[in-house]
Amino acid sequence: MLHAEIEISSFLKARRAALDPAELGLPGGYNRRRVRGLRREEVAQLAGISVDYYTRIEQGRAHAISDSVLDAIARALRLSGGEVSYLRNVAAPRRRGAAAVCAPSPGRPRQTVRPEIQQLLDAMDTVVPALVMGRGLDILAWNALGGRLAFDLERLTPDRRNTALLVFLDPAARELHPEWERKAEEVVGNLRAESGRHPDDPRICEVVGELLDRSPEFRRLWDAQGVYECLRGTKRIVHPEVGELTVTFESLRLSTDPDQVLVTYTAPRGSVTERRLRELADRVGGAALAVQGPAQSGRP
Fold first, then answer.
1. For FRET with 14, which of 79, 107, 118, 206 sits at 20 to 30 Å CA-CA?
2. What is the pLDDT of residues 33-63, one digit of tens each?
3. In sequence order, what are the beta bridge partners of 243?
4. Closest Cα to residue 233, out of 243, 247, 253, 245?
């Protein structure tokens, strides 16, 4: 069980430890400090609040923290946009009086994908792999090419169709992703952002708990408190059937299903990757044989 007090404390400590006092014009280097980064009193000074109040916030003992105070702390700690959102989200349980970040939520149904979204996936061109991600990085639906771009999703049971579980626990992950360390950091950053948005989601608790228990690499990155959402970029995949692919991905949050993200992968027209994607499409039968995700197909 991950508690709200622990989350906000660990996050703020990690963020102030990551800052160089010299870059902020503060006196004293690391060699004359008992702790790395900024002291609590320095964060409080930069944020314009009392040291006692900042200490209570960092220790998870402050309630009803105002947005203006959170914004001031964010500016003091030079937080990114994703980190600011995470700070606001993990502060929210204190405003509600809740104690747990991962409080159980019995009876919450598993996410499903609307049939229209599955139709959109299936209608895409045969060289556009696509899938839909849900809360906690679960893979909810895909088209034929998306289901074979890296891991073979059809061969997995629904509870294992999760990006974080696959990247850290599947033996094939390091061969599929030659830049595995960067991929792992992105996954952890996204998963922590998800945990901030959905503090009471049992599936996120389940995924994080399993990874903390089974993966030392995940535990190391999770403890670093990195928070960011990687919604677009380029990735390399060494596909076992068609060779290395370099694809550009875009993540589009669905307006009527805000907890779901449509992810598409493309390659420049005429590129080696496009040719290999067409070859892969031929191998999986093309768009006419596109498979459905678990939400529609009912397959285990």
1. 206
2. 666 789 999 999 999 999 999 999 988 888 8
3. 239
4. 247
Q: Where are the beta strands (DSSP E) in the chain?
A: 130-133, 139-142, 232-239, 243-254, 257-266
Distance CA 113, CA 237 (A): 26
Q: What CA–CA distance (Å, rounded) separates 97 from 267?
A: 48
Looking at residue 187, what DSSP letter applies? H
Identify the CA nearest to 12 among candidates 2, 23, 4. 4
Residue-wise pLDDT for 119-159, tens only, equals 888 888 678 999 999 999 999 999 999 999 999 999 999 99
The sign of the torsion formed by the CA atoms of 226, 228, 233, 237 equals positive
Residue-wise DSSP of 119-162:
HHHHHS-TT--EEEE-GGGBEEEE-TTGGGSSS-GGGS-GGG-B
